[in-house]
Amino acid sequence: xxIDGMIAKKALRRAFAYAKTTRSIAKSSEECVIFGSGPSLDxxxxxxxxxNGKDLIGCNFVHQHIALKEKRFKIITMIxxxxxxxxxxxxxxxxxxxxxxxSTKNVELLALxxxxxxxxxxxxxxxxxxxxxxxxxxxxxxxxxxxxxxxxFLIQLAAFVAGYKKIFLFGVDHFDIDxxxxxENQNYEGYQGRELKSLRLSPKxxxxxxxxxxxxxxxxxxxxxxxxxLTPDTKLTTFDSLLLPNLxxxxxxx
Length: 254
Hints:
There is one protein chain. The chain is built from eight helices and ten strands. The strands form two sheets. It has an eight-stranded parallel beta sheet with strand order 5-4-3-2-1-8-9-10, with helices on one face. The protein is α/β, with parallel strands linked by helices. It is globular.
């Protein structure tokens, strides 16, 4: 009986995953800002006029940051399986977004009461391997996105499912191989993800993430989608960088 019940629940989750598959998103703007969880987020001026009129997008726990708690997000996603296992009612109480997306690889980890949320959607995904093994057309049409790291996934979602023409990044500090020993500090102060698992990366994993960023960057350029990183002192070289007055207190020496 227990086994039968488990099989029934699994089948029900699969049915929800199919029914909740998302192919389009209702935007409020042609421009969006994607927030990463880098330490620069601690210097964000959330009252900056630049953010007005743009859709806000983030992942995992970024909406819980003190600078963003009062903001309404268009999209929050969670594709990390370890994080998904920890989702509870309190998480959703703090969540203010039009959409909450998970992927086909972690949807079965959600409780049924969370699967029925009106805002929840499921994005078909495939783990990034190499450029040669990935169907570019599938991604460009928004039919199936690459996983492997949350930020490249968010950029794909914004560009190829939602159809934003201009995407800005903030809190995407990134890092290079010299930073790997201090990887635990590559998030903003108090980031919940650090409490749930180690965030250290190997050089091999860093190279993998950089390859995924470069692949997504090439697809965006092919599609004519502009991606600009507004993060001060970012080490991500895939996209053009720009510093905006008043968006970060770091720019003013504070």
